[in-house]
Amino acid sequence: MRSLANFLDSFGAILLAIIWIAPLLFAFWAATHSTSDAVNLELYSPWTMDNFRVAWDGAPWLKYFINTFMLVTVILIGQFILTTLAGFAFAQLQFPGKEFIFILVLMQLFILPEVLIVENYAMVSRLGLFDTILGVGMPYMASAFGIFLMRQSFKSVPIELHEAARIEGCGLLGILWRVYVPLAKPTYLAYGLVSVSTHWNNFLWPLIVTNSPETRPLTVGLSIFGAPENGVDISVISAATMMSVAPLLIAFLIFQRQFVQAFLRAGIK
Amino acid sequence: MSAHVNLERRRQAINGWLLFSPAAVLLTTFAFYPSVATLWSSMFSRGTRRRPTEFVGTENYVDLFADPTFWLVVKNNLIYAAATIPVSIGIALAMALWANSKISARGFVRTAYFTPTVLPMIAAANLWLFFYTPGLGVLDQIGSLFGLPSVNWLGQPETALWAIIIVTIWKEAGFFMIFYLAALQTIPEDLREAADIEGASRWTYTRRIVLPLLMPTTLFIAVNAVINSVKLIDHLFILTKGGPSDASKLILYYIWEMAFAFFHAPQAAALTILVIAVLGIVAAVQFFYLDRRTHYQ
After folding, report:
1. A19-49 residue pLDDT tens
2. Is the same domain home to B1 and B110?
3. Which domain CATH number covers B256?
4. What is the value of ipTM here, to two decimals?
5. Angle subtended by helix axes A218-226 and A61-92, to nearest 10
6. Residue A121 to residue B259, Cβ atoms within 8 A
7. How far is CA A191 from CA A6, A38, A65, B178, in A?
């Protein structure tokens, strides 16, 4: 009885897993076969890399890759600095208005930058940041999620360590840098992974704020490349899609243990 | 002595504000100010060359409520939420229970479930396009094996929204699974042993012990799923563009369209305010009601 249940469990789990990666497998298969073989599902047709060549020549992908890379880097650096400082203030310092402001910050978890696209677009234009990578990144730097996460992490640091560092003559920033930041490494790792994958994949805001291949990230480039008006066929689109997801996907497959562990360890519950 | 305490308190206040100030500046610039500005501009008319913008009070809202597309979009988004939230949570729970149990190929299973999470929504849409395309798509190919007629999943009003919903569920279930997995690992093994000794079946154990312990996680995920039901619209740009005849159009897409395709910013602002109001209610429920039980400390 028990072994039958176990078998059914394994069967169900694996069936669901296959369904879940099927779209990716089909796209991979389509990308590596000629269009007519792909749409006719010719299982024994020959492999080809032509689609990748056609896709690569069809758009400035290298520039897109660099833009996306720059974008996630800029956002990550900004987020680490801002959320560390703010998270520390909320976790360990008493200042007037703290409770109220913290609730205001948490409100941003709900009122997402995505919803405020109209006014944020006006703001970015006013700041002269339209069609710049900084303009795409800035609204996300003071992330409420990050501030919240850092606060939680800093709160769990024993106050004795703080006191000891102070007696040793450390200033406030010194204490933050030498005591709190090293102890929060797992949180930084988890937050970094979440942030990079979020912004690598972000689309709507970059679509609005970028207007040239010089700043356009991969997702926007991919959407333009795949637009039906361009008459690109499905194998080529699949190849372009595989290309643009490859870096993150490969990184995930290699580091998936860390990836999942990071989530679990950060105590995001 | 009290002077010393006072000094220390003042120093903390200054330091606290100084440390918070960079975040405060950006939050004000890109969250607080735009929220207020949106409310403000939702009360003005659209300026044209001949007629400058003028204060119109609630006119934009009245126009919005008189717009049948608005109601269709709201209805679509409610269906979208009502379908994606429970289904993706249910699947996530099943995934987590499986990924946490002793089954064969557990590593592969976990990876497969989580993989869609690291893909951009745009890429996901491209992958699914290959499934949905009439005649050539995988679904039609499979259907034709059983003699079923070709279906234009994305091209007909009855199925377009559901095609969108399926992609969303596919995308977010694996992400929610992670939170359940994290929670499952905090459940002490003793409980399972105790249940075994008591002769409780696996189903009873899951229903009476595991699920109640997962309640806080479920609430957290549910709030995230609600937010996602507003936010996850990227795939519309690839799959349907809101069509056919607005059958799959969702609110955020409509906001984008009004502001950046029809250039009717005040109307878009009015709609934005409505969305913010709804999200604000969700936030209030979360803070003042749910937080009591799921305490974050």
Report:
1. 999 888 888 888 888 777 766 666 777 777 8
2. no
3. 1.10.3720.10
4. 0.86
5. 140
6. yes
7. 36, 39, 22, 14
